[in-house]
Amino acid sequence: MFRYFTAGESHGPSLTGIVEGTPAGLELSEGFIEQHLVRRQKGYGRGGRMAFEKDKAIIQSGVRFGKTTGAPVAFSMVNRAFEKDDSNWPKVMAKEGERGDVEKITLPRPGHADLVGVQKYDFDDIRPVIERSSARETAMRVACCSVARAFLKELGIEIGGHVIQIGSIGYSDWDDVRAIADPLAENGSESIYKEADKSDVRCLNSDLSHQMREEIKHRRKEGTSLGGIYEIVVTGLPAGLGSYVHWDRKIDGQIAQAIVSTQAMKGVEIGLGFEAARSRGHEVHDEIVYKNHFSRRTNRAGGIEGGMTTGMPVIIRGAMKPIPTMIKPLKTADLETKKEQDTRYERSDVCALPRAVVVAESVIAPVLANAILEKFGGDSMNEIRTRFQNRTS
Amino acid sequence: MFRYFTAGESHGPSLTGIVEGTPAGLELSEGFIEQHLVRRQKGYGRGGRMAFEKDKAIIQSGVRFGKTTGAPVAFSMVNRAFEKDDSNWPKVMAKEGERGDVEKITLPRPGHADLVGVQKYDFDDIRPVIERSSARETAMRVACCSVARAFLKELGIEIGGHVIQIGSIGYSDWDDVRAIADPLAENGSESIYKEADKSDVRCLNSDLSHQMREEIKHRRKEGTSLGGIYEIVVTGLPAGLGSYVHWDRKIDGQIAQAIVSTQAMKGVEIGLGFEAARSRGHEVHDEIVYKNHFSRRTNRAGGIEGGMTTGMPVIIRGAMKPIPTMIKPLKTADLETKKEQDTRYERSDVCALPRAVVVAESVIAPVLANAILEKFGGDSMNEIRTRFQNRTS
Amino acid sequence: MFRYFTAGESHGPSLTGIVEGTPAGLELSEGFIEQHLVRRQKGYGRGGRMAFEKDKAIIQSGVRFGKTTGAPVAFSMVNRAFEKDDSNWPKVMAKEGERGDVEKITLPRPGHADLVGVQKYDFDDIRPVIERSSARETAMRVACCSVARAFLKELGIEIGGHVIQIGSIGYSDWDDVRAIADPLAENGSESIYKEADKSDVRCLNSDLSHQMREEIKHRRKEGTSLGGIYEIVVTGLPAGLGSYVHWDRKIDGQIAQAIVSTQAMKGVEIGLGFEAARSRGHEVHDEIVYKNHFSRRTNRAGGIEGGMTTGMPVIIRGAMKPIPTMIKPLKTADLETKKEQDTRYERSDVCALPRAVVVAESVIAPVLANAILEKFGGDSMNEIRTRFQNRTS
Amino acid sequence: MFRYFTAGESHGPSLTGIVEGTPAGLELSEGFIEQHLVRRQKGYGRGGRMAFEKDKAIIQSGVRFGKTTGAPVAFSMVNRAFEKDDSNWPKVMAKEGERGDVEKITLPRPGHADLVGVQKYDFDDIRPVIERSSARETAMRVACCSVARAFLKELGIEIGGHVIQIGSIGYSDWDDVRAIADPLAENGSESIYKEADKSDVRCLNSDLSHQMREEIKHRRKEGTSLGGIYEIVVTGLPAGLGSYVHWDRKIDGQIAQAIVSTQAMKGVEIGLGFEAARSRGHEVHDEIVYKNHFSRRTNRAGGIEGGMTTGMPVIIRGAMKPIPTMIKPLKTADLETKKEQDTRYERSDVCALPRAVVVAESVIAPVLANAILEKFGGDSMNEIRTRFQNRTS
């Protein structure tokens, strides 16, 4: 079973990750990981950080001659900013010694973990909360999850995501999205992300891409921020992953946790999702057909019925809130003085959707990989591949 | 830590449940459990089943003189239908012996676990899939989760749910719902469910209730079915449950799994949810204020920031698909003949929302109770209550 | 993955068990379970309880026409004593109502969970501790674990146990045990338990059996009690279950937990165990040979190297302490008065070893079954059996 | 809850570890970790490796100004050998590229994970098995577990171990050990390890120390190896950690897993352990006394009854097999040629007991720390310490 921990602070010396439970014999390279790390860093609407910080996950263990050994795969990723000459991060983030004249941060930002983090962990300084709750952590999460993604890919299971909504701009309905995404997914859903990557807002529709960029530009001027919705499509999954027999084995529940456990996510839906709730049964359920094998005429269920994959593409959507750090201030109150104050001006991105897609593609990979391992078992890729190819459904 | 298993088939002799991890000294009675079981059974739009089947969870262990002992609490619940004179369930569901002339079910119903269940478990008969994937299981789930609910209640944490959408009928926006639900929640959110229970569609707004009933009536005549959206509000939670430090400790992710792991759920959102994705930052984030203690001016985050409770009410919404069993048939294909066929006519409910609310109120209780146990620890209610009352945030 | 909960008190109305994670298509009957329940009840040195209490686990779910369906298997087991006319258990163990004149037990018995149980759960009465910590619980544990045992058996994996020491009476060394047990295990280790069952102390050597009975008789007269050591042998396991890569995946560690988590166990060893610690390397390590396949010349490792099964029989030994309830009193102190007192006279068994063997055989079954599922995966017995038979090591 | 992963190969560039679940506000320094790392490296009977390899765990995250932040603590530890000029490890252990002329290891060593590891993971080279199954991994395990150990220490819970048997040399019985260890433990059991550390075989008795050294010297000349038995004593634990209500919550079972999941361990016992099995009840059970608080006259149970701590010192013993790498060869068979061969001469330690003690002290720390967290809950040391000090039992 794939299990992973990430560690590291936003401005600490490095991020660390360990992936335990990888089968042996899986092809894995730093290059494969890097492509998704680079994708995660790109996207319209970024602030200035990107230029100086190109992430690279260094494999420290678990891989020999380009293949996994079954032993834990460890990654380290240097935070380039940490050692910059003019940076005082080594002092601010010092692991040993006294605080000295390092300033405390006492102004909690609405929409961030700041206030509650301080209350929970009994801090008088918001700094450690910022450092760990930051989306910087997702860099290592993408690295770790990419191991599971490589595993899925070797079995022909592909994951591809794209942005379908930024602020008020988006597709008008489910069918509109299907019309553009489904043909791409026919030969594997990596085509979806590859096509989407051509747009710096990761939207497949070029008109919408243009509008989204305009919206971002507009809201940046206003000093506010934007959220949005992404869609992730997974192709190549066999039927019968997950189970209806016990609640915690339902694969849609597991996917929902993975998505909502990602920074800034406020909602998730499978297939038609909330639209299904507003529709009549005959507009929702997918008729069953038999042509050489059983299939569905439509896929409004998003590839999951009864907590199990149906063999149709799995379609997941996530709702991301606007970035809470904004130029135009919000009201807040200081931890020490308790006085009402404006949040401080901070340079920030306006919209994180284009990058959040890559994180979402990543975090569902271990969920799906574990469902494969539960169904097919095995310790080496040879063993697993053979069983996967000999499957009957 | 509260852990539970449910067992049992829809038409087997009984349902069984075990709850492990209950602190000692918690007041618990069959009457407390029963009130939620009864609520789960009630709701406009039910088919004929309700009349003959009033659920009662019999406590088999773990409770003495009205209080838990810390030992596992076991429940048994008779399926009244099983032993009816004219029923052949004992024969159809026989645990031993040969199948004999018991008919196989070979026509999978779209929208149910039927087809995939058979593929997964290598069956030639859909019967065992129907029996376990049915929402009948939620009766025992409600019983099991009610133990956690009693625990929360003893600490002043209340859970209340109501229906906000059935098919196309629902509140126009977030503020409309807040205007009616928030005043009720002020003295604890059980007021919400108690008020909602006065409507047989569990909607707080009587005009909408009327329209929902009409919609159900209308769609029943059409032979189709309806889904909808519920909202669950939790009051009395302290700040700081969950954590931002590791993905699987984020309480919103855990809640999302619990909701989506319930039969027929296709989506979940926290606070503004998908609406947040379509809004600008300043319309979403809750400003921080200090009056004796830190609080938020608004609660559009739905009581969760950075994967932790903020101390404001937790607001969760779930999207349920329309019931897949419908009078007007859908196309499907027979497992044996592979021939296209209409689904069979089956008596069924049209809309399960009013009852699904009670299930949702229940399934989040163990998630929250475990977060409390993680924060406060303890083996007995005396120990836990004291710490809870002495908390600082 | 096999997971199970047991519930129930020693003198409550019934015991309950749920086994979640069983593959579909496994043959399972109440008769199969019963044979091990009956074995668990038999053994020289029992007190009077046995006569009136023949256990039967009633399957409540998860089995149809003699085969599992993949759904949770629930068991209920009536406590016959509960409803006896002259028993006041329904009053003493009442789940509702006030305590009334039901006496509190305030004299903790050394060697039992009594004192700590009361301290932990904040009780003023030892009764609930006695009820749940009692070995009565193992009746349901045997039932639940028997599902995993049936699974293993269908793959040709057999478990058999025997007593090798009672008090001071036992085999002189490892080789003595091997000489009698190994030939029996050659055709599957169920032969071991079947042969051992012919002795009422479950010892394979008839001379030792006689001495053990004499020892028990002698110590009963003295008013004291006895413990001992059992050995469990598992045959038919493939090589490579468990793993060396992460500590919690080592199968010897998992087995050790299962054994020591059983009532009254104070030690466990694999293969030569503590004797290995006192020996030189050349007396311990098993040379590797190749004859058609790789094997070991000896099996002093007890079938486990590097946290993995070697393909040789797994040999586990457990050390059980003497029964703490004894006729000749020990000193203790009353919970209320704090005064020193003698423990009360209680009718009790003198030695539980013969029955503990059956419990031990049972509790390791889920550990091994889960290792099989991890290696071979699968949802139905057909799927699993095929892969198991096609394995290469 | 403390959770940790270790990663890294014996001759890879570095070891990595992540500890997730640490409360905030715990004092932690690299110096604290280092003292146990250094202890782990010392001990009579080592081969030549020690000189060039002094371990240092570098904290990469989770600690600021000398205190934990609640975020995951990551460690990296350089393998000094890896980059030595004359070493070809970077080539042998290359993560990328082809194998080239790097030799395969095809001669499995009896007693190691070699043969089964290759079978399990489908390797044609034993190298990756050696690299991960090696006791080198315990260096990072000690580092990770030391975080839990610092946590316990801050609450006054101390862990101390010593060697009681090496090969045939050891204390004659339980009382002999108690006579020397218990007085030391009276002021906290760190006194035990501090005293034991004065002996290079970590034995408290100087006569035995001398004999053990002689035994090691003797067996080295013979070309064989030795195992032995250690004892770990934990003082300062409150009563009531663990539970009798469900098998996997029994703390003795959890401890047993932790011990046996350590390299080369073949057995574990609590308190009298196997000696209890050979004794009569009156020689085993600890009478209860009341003097201001409840206590036991003796502690033959080793501080655990009914799966719970009693408040008396916890006493654990582990049996380690002799080191399998030995100068005098054993027979084995080549993976490729299948031909019988002698194992190759390898420089190796003769006895690892003195170092294994430190590993054992370490691995039980997370088990105990988690039991404390379960009982007392909490996110910061202030919160936990207050509750711990206010406890009633």
TrEMBL record, chains A, B, C, D:
Subunit structure, as described in the record: Homotetramer.
Origin: domain of life: Bacteria
PANTHER family assigned: CHORISMATE SYNTHASE
Biological source species: Rhodohalobacter barkolensis
Record-listed NADP(+) binding positions: R40, R46
Pathway where this protein functions: Metabolic intermediate biosynthesis; chorismate biosynthesis; chorismate from D-erythrose 4-phosphate and phosphoenolpyruvate: step 7/7
Family as reported in the entry's similarity comment: Belongs to the chorismate synthase family.
Protein name: Chorismate synthase
Keyword field contains Zinc: no
Record-listed E.C. numbers: 4.2.3.5
Cofactor(s) needed by this chain: FMNH2
